[in-house]
């Protein structure tokens, strides 16, 4: 996630709205494995335009996750006090910047593809209206509210700002969807499944055998001498209810009211809802980070990738920042393409793909120093604590391309 910074001697402005047709890339590293593992050091508009003509990519991307600029009006530094990116736009300028990129991303997605756009309250509603136009209102799947940090003591006259948002759209009505579940805690089990079946010891809960709405077929007919309650119908046909009763799956109350038993052992877990509280970006001093200012929680990215893609599918992040989505995709066996315009972002990703991340506490005592003369891919620009003799911990193979 970086805009308004330089690549070599070329200044790339925030209002870059048209791809350069004569842009060229040089490949500086080569991937030695099958599949697509690419990192582009370039304006993502140029890369997205290039990928439109790449038959191995265009229309074949299963998942896009982006964490674009939020239009906060500020500039951001890394934990090493280096400029990461500039986030100063006018509203119309910002929307134009996003629109042309989102339109290209829509084309790159496969028919079973999805896109997740991570924003804060500054622009999330502006962008949603625009994405309704590009992707179609019918393909809006939801807006996830994420708790991003611990509670704050605000001095401003407003509520503490501890949330951000993820817009979720699909390209068509049939996206890849692997429903995510949370594990049952013992406390929730006791609350949701409070009964234990005599003889088997199976834990269960009781639910109605009827549902709202009238039906004229079998589910609206008589069972055991009774009709469904007014305005409702049986959840199952009378024949199926008889079978369930024979199997001991119907509970009869003292006054003859039937209830269905739902067993804990048949539950896959608690279906994930659209409020995520467990993915703070930095939780404690032992949290592994790169030091990049907008780095997101890798477990959150893994949830998104596992939910909306399959092993071997192609994942794209064209505001790659610290490379969290790329690392998550790699660890989950996906192909991936990452793009960022910022020198510091690319240096962070390159070193992360080689050396991994460090505990947040390692940054606490770091002092500001002159880094202007450091080469882009000098591993010391990533970490003062890396020893030259330190061996790579990740050593992920990928293709690296730079704009010429």
Roughly what fraction of the amino acids lie in strands?
A: 25-35%
DSSP helical segment count: 8
Global geometry: elongated
Give the domain tally: 2
Strand arrangement across the biggest beta sheet? 3-24-4-22-21-5-8-10-9-19
Q: Mean pLDDT, rounded to whole units? A: 84
Biggest beta sheet attributes:
10 strands, mixed
What CATH calls the topology of the largest domain is Rossmann fold
Which structural class is indicated by helix and strand composition? alpha/beta
DSSP helix fraction: 10-25%
Distance between the termini: 21 Å
Low-confidence stretches: 1-15, 74-79, 367-389
**Strands, total number:** 24
The CATH H-level homologous superfamily of the largest domain: Vaccinia Virus protein VP39
Radius of gyration from CA coordinates: 26 Å
CATH architecture of the largest domain: 3-Layer(aba) Sandwich
